[in-house]
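Might you be able to check the backbone structure tokens below? Thank you kindly.
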Amino acid sequence: MTDFYTVRINFKGGVISPAELKNILETARECQVHKVRFGLRQQMIFNLPRNFGKTFALKAQELNFEFQTDTNVYPNIVSSYVAEEVFQNGNWLSEGIYKDIFDGFDYDPQIKINISDAQQSFSPLFSGHLNFVTSPTPNYWYLYIRVPKTNKVYLYPKLIFSTDIPVLSLKLEAKILAHEGQSIINVTTLFTSIDAKRSIVAETPFEPPAFSLPYYEGLNRYGNKTWLGIYRRNELFSVDFLLDICALCQQTKIGEICVTPWKSIIIKGIEEESRELWSNLLFKYSINVRHAANELNWQVEDDSEAALALKLSLVKSFDEYDLRTFGICFGIKTRPKTEVYASIMVRRRRFKLLGFIPFNFVYDISYTEDFNPNGRTKKYFYVGASRLILAEQLRRCVLQYNKLKAANLIEAAGMKDDHIEEGEDVVLSPKETYQCSHCLTVYDADFGDPARGFAAGTSFDDLPDTYTCPTCDAPKKDFVRV
């Protein structure tokens, strides 16, 4: 047992008032909490010393804020509200409509609910179990249902009215939870149970927008105001720093702070005359707000030091490669049952010797079919990579995306690329390697097996017949071409 509790506090839709956040932070600081982090589902997460558990609970009750301890039964309502005005505008979806929907949730959902503007790609569209996405018709939403523990989404054939979303969500949640533990939930039955009197037929099919991650940190002007985005490389925010943010918000009459699905925060509505005050606050805490774009486009599972360390290592490799990663969202999973939004996913798993004995970690690289993180069709680029070759294989997957993107742009412009032969398939296929049929260890000629005296560039055919798998000692004949 650890000497702390993991506390999660939901900010509905990713929005919190400075006054409410101040109460939470002051309570946490009184209980010896000095740093907090934010999660993929727009939650605050921190470690609370066990001997302060009762004190924190009593104070939370007094100040009327809810929290979860060592659990995530209530996984929060995620929304794209943070992107409104700042990263997209011109749609019928306004701050007022968002707030009306949020206010309608007078209960804490136990399933994941996403409320998203269709015109943005800053927040995930389909990572919830109930996913509401704006339609072209004002105040009406597409509904996509994803059954828990599955990766497939189903589109309800009608559009849902804005203020019907909370009540409908509660009814669908009850039916989904009633089938919890069953291997199959009949989605057609779920659809027929929807009683939304104001629903209308969806005449226009929905096409997810192309992914384009905006640069989401720093002081940036929009209209006659400024927004400030703050990202922390180690995901940790000082409680004192956040308290000073709350105080400055109150001083300059800013009514809300937004938490993003990228584990950062955004303050909107900064007036020109107070911009210098915010700049001074960044100086006071030496906060850097100009990180490289290839560090910002990552989704790392919550509260995972292993995943964060892997991300920082891979980002360093990308810097060394001087690799272009524009238009890609990377994800890292080191635990099962975590939902991460990504174009290219790195999943760590324990290799099992002889099929059942836990051994070393290996990594699988997969990607969505069109490299859009909202896509649900997954393909594998490399299975069972060792840590030694992970960065190189990830680089090759990025090169596949870049070449595909270049070909699409050339085609759209009606031009011919001199570097692409007529009729050539512009999508790079994974190269030929050989894989142990027992433990899935891969022999890659580009790397060879230096530990056994076979230099990089040694083809599999040139290995002696006595060669064996470096992991499980299976003979060479048990390797298969992949």
Q: What stands out?
A: The domain at 88-201 is CATH 3.30.413 (Sulfite Reductase Hemoprotein; domain 1). Confidence is low (pLDDT under 50) at residues 417-429.
